Amino acid sequence: TGSAYTTDSINDLMNFNNPENGSSALCNIADYYHIVNSCNFYLANVDTTITENNKKIMHREWAQVQAMRAWAYIQLVRNYGEVPFVTTPVSSTSQAEEVSKKAGKVNASNLASLLVENGLGRAYELQRTYGIPDYGSFNNGAGSYNSKLNFFPVEVVLGDAYLMSEDYANAANYYY
């Protein structure tokens, strides 16, 4: 729970209030699309064939970026209902306007299927095979923690997407 010192933005999030786009410092549709677009650029340009010691070294990161993009779409759908579903990188405002007009829409009912079809299903398999990226431990001044704690387990993101899509059997399966 909040206190007298908790900002309205934090209170809105804690109480699951969905403010209008831009009315909250923490609720701006452009910020989520910045995450989506950054992920789209990475996914379009990463070389997943790079091999070191007979291991495909970029598969863990590729899966993680898929999970981050999926998380951003989950937040977009949660906050705004139905939004454009864009999986290609956008490099200009004019291109963004064109892509947005042509893009399909994602909402709670089709969220999980679109995410799975566009890479999250493959990300799940890769994360099961290769694990979460591990860059060792970080010291934040108050203590040390493992870098793995900063990443999204794909099965949890899938569980959230299926839960939002009201596919409770799949949600339970991935959460389990």
Topology, element by element:
Layout (H helix, E strand, L loop, with lengths): L7 H7 L14 H17 L5 E2 L2 E2 L2 H22 L2 E3 L7 H10 L1 E3 L4 H20 L6 E3 L4 E3 L7 H11 L3 H8 L1
Antiparallel strand pairs: 1-2, 3-4, 5-6
Mind explaining what this structure looks like?
With 176 residues, the protein is mainly alpha-helical. It has 7 helices and 6 strands, in the order H-H-E-E-H-E-H-E-H-E-E-H-H. It has helices at 8-14, 29-45, 59-80, 93-102, 111-130, 154-164, 168-175; strands at residues 51-52, 55-56, 83-85, 104-106, 137-139, 144-146. The strands form 3 sheets. Strands 1-2 form a two-stranded antiparallel ribbon. The chain has a two-stranded antiparallel ribbon with strand order 3-4. Strands 5-6 form a two-stranded antiparallel sheet. Strand 5 and strand 6 (144-146) form a beta hairpin. Helix 3 (59-80) packs parallel to helix 6 (154-164) and helix 5 runs antiparallel to helix 6. The longest helix is centred in the middle third of the chain and has 22 residues, at 59-80. It is globular.
What's this, in brief?
The chain is mainly alpha-helical.
**Shape type:** globular
> Reading side by side through the largest sheet, how are the strands ordered?
1-2
Count of alpha/pi helices = 7
Largest sheet geometry: 2 strands, antiparallel
User: How far apart lie the N and C ends?
Assistant: 28 Å
The helix fraction, in percent, is 40-55%
Low-confidence stretches: none
Q: Give Rg in angstroms.
A: 18 Å
Instruction: Note the beta-strand portion.
Output: 5-15%
Number of strands: 6
Question: What is the succession of H and E elements?
Answer: HHEEHEHEHEEHH
- Which class do the helix and strand fractions yield? mainly alpha
Mean pLDDT: 90
